[in-house]
Give the backbone structure.
Amino acid sequence: MSAIIEIDHLSKQYDSGTKALDDVSLSIKEGEIIALLGPNGAGKTTLISIICGLVVPTGGTVRVGGHDIRKDWRAARKMIGLVPQEIALEPFEKVINCVRFTRRLYGMPPDDAYLERILRALSLWDKRDAATRELSGGMKRRVLIAKALSHNPKVLFLDEPTAGVDVALRREMWEVVGDLRREGVTIILTTHYLEEAEEMADRVGVIAKGQLLLVKPTAQLMGEFGRKTLTIELDAPLSGIPADMADPNLTLSEDGRQLAFDYDTRAERTGIARLLGELAARDITVRDVSTRQSSLEEVFISLVDESENAA
Amino acid sequence: MNMVNWHGVWSIYHHEMTRFFRTIWQSLASPVVSTVLYFVVFGAAIGGRIQSVEGVPYGAFIVPGLMMLTVLQQAVSNASFGIYFPKFSGTIYEYLVSPVGWIEVTLGFVGAAATKAILIALVILLTSFAFVGVHILHPFWMIAFLLLSAVGFSLLGFIIGLWAKSFEQLQIVPMMVIMPLVFLGGAFYSASMLPPFWGAVAKLNPVLYLISGFRWAFFGLADVPVGASLIAVAAMVVVCLAVIRWIFATGWRLRE
């Protein structure tokens, strides 16, 4: 599949001197869903805002469908739909009129049949004559999606689509994205939930401090990040790990009272049962066990450290 | 591919006009009521003593001034509110990410604000027929001045709406600047009635040129040459357009 978005050495430095984006390059294929993952202030929204035309970059280029976003901005913008992070709707406007308005703003002739299809797909058709202020938070967000889709864009940007929404609504959002994927819309979403990226995206890009640290297929990334550590507190200290139990993932603390075992949560056999069985067979008494997963925050920090050390 | 996106212009214009027609009675009632009050106070009470200005009955004499007062107020308030409200509600992002540039946004918002101002001014003209006999000497120029003034002050209002960061700021310019300029611009008197010094000062007021030109279209009476009036209003349109173009090019108060 060909690239629909080509980001080339993109930078943004604000007048204050803050570098919001630092030499970001990324190619996004048509029809894929890519999640930009990163902590708050990482530069995710800045990246989206530049591509959509809300922020002017200080360096680099972006092409959408082959159109430069600055030189050929009209053609580039016609291909894009944006669902912003903040819910912004005219409170007194009817849902159907909101969607009609956006479609024409994008230079498209009226097409109520198409808009009906979108509103039905988003379960908004029954609410088409309701003023937006009468809608629930989840419905408002869906109206924003309907507006963003009203002109039949090739690329949809979802900026933190589930920020501040409850679990049920988050599920609903994921289903909507799943439907859009089947329609062949290229989707770029930002999130700071690893779980969300895992659920929806084909590829994940990790952004921190304005830099795109890595872009990997979701499955591969989850394999790397989906590891946990099992800590086993022993009743009596060990002088060393028994030779026949040697495993690169198994380590003993200096005082000999703690065994740490790294395992892959997604593996068919994690090796936990085998390990505990072997300890029992050797009459090594276990006092307590606990598990912990490295948080996304830690992952970001280690990735940033790695990239700084590499530089 | 730098063609004007006419669908985009229409979308904005239609959206703004829909809001106007949704509250049509409020939109019309207040200017009509205030016009009637002006006729009662200035036309009947004071006009009874003034009789006529340069041969025109005072009641009729104030009609162009009243219309111009309304056009200026309505144009500024509609255009400034029109663009300020999306800034306030956050929906401004749509204009900034869609394939519309400063031309489409300005045509849509300013076109709608000017249309509303002209419609209300025409209602006032119709209302005034109920009180005084008004004869329009140069209908073409009357329409031309009405149109240019409505557009010029809608552009000014649009700039105020782009500049404003709060509803208070949105109100302050019309109250502190536009109203005094209109009252001192000869809406209810002829500049020739002022003492020579104040007559000269009044000529520095751009609104005087608009009212003078507009009144000339009605009665053939002018405080300043009609050509000067036309140049003043045309200059205002050009300067405002340049400012708006600059705002959109730099993103000042838009992309902050």
User: Anything to note?
Assistant: Chain B touches chain A through 28 residues (CB under 8 Å). Chain B has a mean pLDDT of 90. The two ends of chain B are 27 Å apart (CA to CA).
